[in-house]
Amino acid sequence: AAATRKIACPDGVHTASNAACCALFPVVEDLQKNLFDGGECGEETHESLRLTFHDAIGFSPALFRQHKFGGGGADGSIITFDNVETAFHANNGIDEIVNTQKPIIARHNLTAGDFIQLAGAVGVSNCAGAPRLEFLLGRPPATAPSPDLLVPEPFDSVSKILARFADAGFSPAEVVALLASHSVAAADHVDPTIPGTPFDSTASSFDSQVFV
After folding, report:
1. Of 25, 199, 40, 55, whose CA–CA distance to 128 is shortest?
2. pLDDT along the chain (212 residues), means of 10
3. pTM for the full model?
4. Which residues are catalytic?
5. Positive or negative CA dihedral for 62, 70, 182, 89?
6. Taking the CB of residue 92, how many other CB atoms lie within 10 A of it?
7. How far apart are CA 194 and CA 187, in angstroms?
8. Can you tell me the distance from the alpha carbon of 48 to that of 136, in angstroms, rounded to the nearest whole number?
Protein backbone atom coordinates (compact mmCIF):
# COMPACT_ATOMS: atom_id res chain seq x y z
CA ALA A 1 0.00 0.00 0.00
CA ALA A 2 1.16 3.53 -0.74
CA ALA A 3 2.37 5.59 2.21
CA THR A 4 -0.03 8.29 3.39
CA ARG A 5 1.27 11.71 2.45
CA LYS A 6 1.76 13.96 5.47
CA ILE A 7 1.16 17.70 5.45
CA ALA A 8 3.31 20.03 7.57
CA CYS A 9 1.12 22.08 9.90
CA PRO A 10 1.62 25.87 10.17
CA ASP A 11 3.00 25.50 13.71
CA GLY A 12 6.13 23.89 12.28
CA VAL A 13 5.87 21.05 14.80
CA HIS A 14 3.07 18.71 13.76
CA THR A 15 2.17 16.88 10.59
CA ALA A 16 -1.21 15.52 9.53
CA SER A 17 -2.75 13.50 6.73
CA ASN A 18 -5.42 16.19 6.35
CA ALA A 19 -4.76 19.92 6.68
CA ALA A 20 -8.01 20.38 8.61
CA CYS A 21 -6.53 18.31 11.43
CA CYS A 22 -3.78 20.86 12.06
CA ALA A 23 -6.24 23.07 13.92
CA LEU A 24 -6.91 20.24 16.37
CA PHE A 25 -3.41 19.99 17.85
CA PRO A 26 -3.80 23.14 20.01
CA VAL A 27 -7.17 21.84 21.21
CA VAL A 28 -5.67 18.50 22.20
CA GLU A 29 -2.83 20.23 24.05
CA ASP A 30 -5.34 22.46 25.87
CA LEU A 31 -7.40 19.42 26.83
CA GLN A 32 -4.44 17.48 28.14
CA LYS A 33 -3.05 20.40 30.13
CA ASN A 34 -6.19 22.05 31.46
CA LEU A 35 -8.86 19.33 31.56
CA PHE A 36 -6.99 16.06 32.00
CA ASP A 37 -4.32 17.27 34.42
CA GLY A 38 -1.41 16.62 32.10
CA GLY A 39 -2.75 13.38 30.62
CA GLU A 40 -4.34 11.49 33.51
CA CYS A 41 -7.11 8.91 33.34
CA GLY A 42 -9.05 10.54 36.17
CA GLU A 43 -12.44 11.96 37.02
CA GLU A 44 -12.48 14.41 34.11
CA THR A 45 -11.80 11.56 31.68
CA HIS A 46 -14.62 9.52 33.18
CA GLU A 47 -17.05 12.42 33.01
CA SER A 48 -15.98 13.45 29.49
CA LEU A 49 -16.59 9.92 28.25
CA ARG A 50 -20.01 9.92 29.89
CA LEU A 51 -20.77 13.22 28.17
CA THR A 52 -19.98 11.79 24.72
CA PHE A 53 -22.62 9.13 25.20
CA HIS A 54 -25.29 11.28 26.81
CA ASP A 55 -25.01 13.75 23.94
CA ALA A 56 -24.91 11.14 21.16
CA ILE A 57 -27.75 8.91 22.39
CA GLY A 58 -30.15 11.85 22.07
CA PHE A 59 -31.38 10.56 18.72
CA SER A 60 -34.58 8.63 18.02
CA PRO A 61 -35.69 7.53 14.53
CA ALA A 62 -38.90 6.29 16.18
CA LEU A 63 -39.79 9.85 17.18
CA PHE A 64 -39.03 11.11 13.67
CA ARG A 65 -41.38 8.46 12.26
CA GLN A 66 -44.07 9.94 14.51
CA HIS A 67 -43.35 13.34 12.92
CA LYS A 68 -41.72 14.56 16.13
CA PHE A 69 -38.23 15.95 16.64
CA GLY A 70 -36.04 13.00 17.59
CA GLY A 71 -32.87 14.88 18.52
CA GLY A 72 -29.65 15.57 16.69
CA GLY A 73 -27.45 12.86 18.19
CA ALA A 74 -23.82 13.88 18.75
CA ASP A 75 -24.50 17.52 17.95
CA GLY A 76 -23.43 19.13 21.23
CA SER A 77 -26.97 20.03 22.24
CA ILE A 78 -26.25 18.90 25.79
CA ILE A 79 -23.88 21.89 26.07
CA THR A 80 -25.59 24.32 23.70
CA PHE A 81 -28.91 23.79 25.47
CA ASP A 82 -27.50 22.81 28.84
CA ASN A 83 -30.23 24.69 30.71
CA VAL A 84 -32.68 22.14 29.26
CA GLU A 85 -30.77 18.88 29.00
CA THR A 86 -28.84 18.95 32.29
CA ALA A 87 -32.22 19.04 34.02
CA PHE A 88 -33.15 15.61 32.62
CA HIS A 89 -33.15 12.95 35.34
CA ALA A 90 -30.78 10.69 33.38
CA ASN A 91 -28.27 13.55 33.15
CA ASN A 92 -28.00 14.01 36.90
CA GLY A 93 -24.62 15.49 37.76
CA ILE A 94 -23.51 15.99 34.15
CA ASP A 95 -23.70 19.76 34.58
CA GLU A 96 -20.30 19.61 36.30
CA ILE A 97 -18.38 18.43 33.22
CA VAL A 98 -20.53 20.66 30.99
CA ASN A 99 -19.52 23.71 33.02
CA THR A 100 -15.88 22.60 32.97
CA GLN A 101 -15.78 22.11 29.21
CA LYS A 102 -17.67 25.26 28.17
CA PRO A 103 -14.81 27.75 28.74
CA ILE A 104 -12.40 25.48 26.88
CA ILE A 105 -14.77 25.29 23.91
CA ALA A 106 -14.94 29.09 23.91
CA ARG A 107 -11.17 29.22 23.32
CA HIS A 108 -11.34 27.21 20.10
CA ASN A 109 -13.09 27.26 16.74
CA LEU A 110 -14.98 23.98 17.18
CA THR A 111 -18.65 23.20 17.48
CA ALA A 112 -19.80 21.79 20.80
CA GLY A 113 -20.58 18.47 19.11
CA ASP A 114 -17.05 18.13 17.74
CA PHE A 115 -15.46 19.25 21.00
CA ILE A 116 -17.39 16.76 23.16
CA GLN A 117 -16.39 13.81 21.00
CA LEU A 118 -12.77 14.97 20.68
CA ALA A 119 -12.48 15.41 24.44
CA GLY A 120 -13.85 11.93 24.99
CA ALA A 121 -11.39 10.38 22.54
CA VAL A 122 -8.43 12.27 24.00
CA GLY A 123 -9.42 11.45 27.57
CA VAL A 124 -9.79 7.73 26.90
CA SER A 125 -6.35 7.69 25.26
CA ASN A 126 -4.92 8.50 28.70
CA CYS A 127 -6.20 5.23 30.17
CA ALA A 128 -3.97 2.17 30.15
CA GLY A 129 -5.16 -0.45 27.67
CA ALA A 130 -7.70 1.83 26.04
CA PRO A 131 -8.28 1.84 22.28
CA ARG A 132 -7.38 4.90 20.22
CA LEU A 133 -10.79 6.17 19.17
CA GLU A 134 -11.36 7.59 15.71
CA PHE A 135 -12.46 11.22 15.68
CA LEU A 136 -14.40 12.64 12.75
CA LEU A 137 -14.51 16.43 12.36
CA GLY A 138 -17.40 18.44 10.98
CA ARG A 139 -20.51 18.26 13.17
CA PRO A 140 -22.82 21.24 12.63
CA PRO A 141 -24.07 23.27 15.60
CA ALA A 142 -27.13 21.94 17.41
CA THR A 143 -30.39 23.65 16.56
CA ALA A 144 -32.59 22.32 19.36
CA PRO A 145 -32.28 20.37 22.61
CA SER A 146 -32.66 16.61 22.60
CA PRO A 147 -36.03 15.27 23.77
CA ASP A 148 -36.07 13.88 27.29
CA LEU A 149 -36.17 10.15 28.10
CA LEU A 150 -33.70 9.07 25.39
CA VAL A 151 -30.81 8.30 27.79
CA PRO A 152 -31.14 4.80 29.32
CA GLU A 153 -31.03 4.78 33.13
CA PRO A 154 -29.37 2.26 35.47
CA PHE A 155 -32.64 1.01 36.91
CA ASP A 156 -34.41 0.51 33.57
CA SER A 157 -35.30 -3.08 32.69
CA VAL A 158 -33.05 -4.96 30.27
CA SER A 159 -35.83 -5.03 27.68
CA LYS A 160 -36.35 -1.27 27.95
CA ILE A 161 -32.61 -0.59 27.62
CA LEU A 162 -32.26 -2.88 24.60
CA ALA A 163 -35.32 -1.31 22.97
CA ARG A 164 -33.88 2.20 23.38
CA PHE A 165 -30.56 1.12 21.92
CA ALA A 166 -32.29 -0.70 19.06
CA ASP A 167 -34.09 2.54 18.21
CA ALA A 168 -30.69 4.24 18.04
CA GLY A 169 -29.29 1.48 15.79
CA PHE A 170 -27.45 -0.79 18.25
CA SER A 171 -27.71 -4.58 18.35
CA PRO A 172 -27.72 -6.38 21.74
CA ALA A 173 -24.12 -7.49 21.14
CA GLU A 174 -23.10 -3.89 20.45
CA VAL A 175 -24.80 -2.79 23.67
CA VAL A 176 -22.69 -5.26 25.66
CA ALA A 177 -19.55 -4.01 23.91
CA LEU A 178 -20.55 -0.43 24.69
CA LEU A 179 -20.81 -1.30 28.37
CA ALA A 180 -17.04 -1.81 28.34
CA SER A 181 -16.74 1.98 28.60
CA HIS A 182 -17.71 1.58 32.26
CA SER A 183 -14.28 0.03 32.80
CA VAL A 184 -12.99 3.59 33.32
CA ALA A 185 -16.05 5.00 35.05
CA ALA A 186 -17.56 5.46 38.48
CA ALA A 187 -21.08 5.66 39.86
CA ASP A 188 -21.29 9.19 41.20
CA HIS A 189 -25.05 9.60 41.41
CA VAL A 190 -26.64 6.13 41.32
CA ASP A 191 -26.33 5.63 45.08
CA PRO A 192 -25.71 8.91 46.97
CA THR A 193 -24.42 7.01 50.01
CA ILE A 194 -21.36 5.76 48.06
CA PRO A 195 -20.48 8.55 45.59
CA GLY A 196 -17.63 8.02 43.16
CA THR A 197 -17.62 4.23 43.50
CA PRO A 198 -15.72 2.64 40.55
CA PHE A 199 -17.49 -0.02 38.49
CA ASP A 200 -14.49 -2.33 38.81
CA SER A 201 -11.20 -2.69 40.68
CA THR A 202 -9.08 -1.15 37.89
CA ALA A 203 -10.74 2.22 37.35
CA SER A 204 -7.75 3.75 35.53
CA SER A 205 -7.35 0.84 33.11
CA PHE A 206 -9.54 0.00 30.15
CA ASP A 207 -10.03 -3.75 30.51
CA SER A 208 -12.64 -6.48 30.89
CA GLN A 209 -12.66 -6.40 34.72
CA VAL A 210 -16.00 -4.55 34.65
CA PHE A 211 -17.66 -7.73 33.37
CA VAL A 212 -16.29 -9.92 36.17
Report:
1. 40
2. 80 94 97 97 94 98 98 98 98 96 97 98 96 94 98 96 98 94 83 82 89 85
3. 0.93
4. 54
5. negative
6. 13
7. 8
8. 17
